[in-house]
Amino acid sequence: MLNFKPRAYFLDLDGTFLDLPKTENRVSEDNINIARQLNDQGIPVILSTGRRNSEFVVNLANKINSPYIVCQNGGLIVDSNNNVLKKCEIKRDSALKVIEILKKEKMFFMINSLPIIYGASTKIFMARPWTKKMEIKKYDEIPQISNVTKILTFGKFSTRGIKKIKESLEANFFNLKFHIVSKGWSIEINDMNATKGIANSYICQLLNIDPKKAVHFGDSGNDVSVKSYVGAFVVMKNAARNIKKHGDIIGYSYKRSGVAKTIKNLFMTKK
């Protein structure tokens, strides 16, 4: 258990805070209420996600009265009015080289979390539900590359194939960070200075809070970076085994208000 009372909470979205992903609201009232209650009490609850600063994400932050949002794993940090506070872009030459490798591997990829998937084909095998909402274009329709903060790629027939590509990219791009997500089926690519750990620490500085008095809730590879920055990494029970081993605390499964249950049962009773 923790030896401190959290002064700030950072919450991943998919697989963590968004406990009703198949519904229109995507998040339960219990999760919303606990986050808003803490913010209103002066204990900041900050969304820390791989998603972009979309209307949905900004509206959700405002719904819980959160002052800041960590987007794209720290590639972009905004305030509650969607004003950009910090941006960590992938160098253009690196982005171009990575994309060329992905094209050779016939991978699908998205740039800056925009709702467009680029691929060698417009047909996606093993399509996940979220891909059905996306526009799919071929490689020759890729726009001029600039201001890239994140690349998400997928498209291998096995998680072993995804891991092999990640290892190859890591060996060639020391200035980038690579996180395996989506239960091993996707890779997120950011600048080396764009991690949730660095971003959470930056937010704590803005809030005048010791990051070692903060906790981060998450379930994926991009959440592990918080380990050396915040006081505790709370891993959701639904996380993969290789993520759980990094956790300081194992919380409830994200489903059915898992974040709210974890906060109430593990933290709100601490004096």
From TrEMBL:
The keyword Hydrolase applies. GO terms for cellular component: cytosol. Keywords: Hydrolase. It comes from the Bacteria. GO terms for molecular function: magnesium ion binding; phosphatase activity. Pfam families: Hydrolase_3. Gene3D superfamilies: 3.30.1240.10, HAD superfamily/HAD-like (3.40.50.1000). This is HAD-IIB family hydrolase. It comes from Mycoplasma phocoeninasale.
